[in-house]
Amino acid sequence: MILKNVFVCKNPIIQDSLSHLRDKKTSLHEFRENSDRICYLLFAEATKSLSCKKGKIETPLCETTSCTLDENIVVVPVLRSGIAMLFGAMDLLPNVKVGFVGLERDECTAVAREYYWKLPEIDHNTTIIVTDPMLATGGSILHLLRRMAEENPKEMRVASVLAAPEGIEAIHQEFPKVKIFTASIDQKLNDKKYIVPGLGDYGDRYFNTV
Ligand code: URA
Question: Would you say residue 77 lies in a domain?
Answer without folding.
Answer: yes
